[in-house]
Amino acid sequence: MFVSCSNSSHSAKATVYNSFYPSSPVKASLPTSAKGKDKHGFPNYSIKDMERFVRTTAYSDAENEPGAVGNLNAAGTTLKYGNVRSAAADWSIYPLGTKFKIKGLPHTYIVDDYGSALVGTNTVDIYHPSLKLMRKWGTRPVELNIIEMGDWHKSAKLLKGRTKYAHCNSMYCGVMSNLRQFKDFILQNN
Questions:
Q1: Could you state, in order of their start, the residue ranges of all structural domains in the chain?
Q2: 20, 42, 91, 113 - which has most CB atoms within 10 Å?
């Protein structure tokens, strides 16, 4: 098992691939606790910030990604697409079970999946059951409102057994860092 959490910032190893510039500006107020930006140019937030301006992308089980198991998410349950919809994210930023809404949309989203490209970013990947719907969503900036933060301990438990994969190891180290750094806040909100 590979677990090396010597660097306090789990995203320090992130590689910058390109910048993301929204095609049309979206107005959102940034919290005073936003510190720096991720590799796509979107602000980083404290785990205490419940309103965020983030980059979203889309994914589908119809993509037949290597390592993906049909319509199952990383938590081992079925991907959701109804009033409640599945989303993937870096679990050290949005832990497993995080519930949120996207401004202007009626659905509730739940983080029950992750992806290696999401690690070290604030990007949220929105699940769609077809390639057509996935492509229609594309990449877009949104205002996201966290209704309920997920379970940091469940995230750590699931990720610990997967640390031989670099992206899972990075998320595990980030989750453990958050559990230590924000222990009192997490206990009050879980």
A1: 36-150
A2: 91
Q: How far is the CA of 122 from the CAs of 16, 39, 61, 64, 72, in angstroms?
A: 14, 9, 22, 24, 23
Tokens 């606790």 sit on residue: 33
Sign of CA pseudo-dihedral 181, 155, 50, 133: positive
From the list 174, 36, 181, 51, the residue with the least C-alpha distance to 118 is: 174
Which CATH code fits 36-150? 2.40.40.10
For residues 75 and 113, the answer to whether their CB atoms sit within 8 Å is yes
Name the nearest CA neighbour of 121 among 144, 148, 88. 88
d(CA 62, CA 132): 10
Question: How much is the CA Rg of the chain, to the nearest whole Å?
Answer: 16
- Decide: pTM greater than 0.70: yes
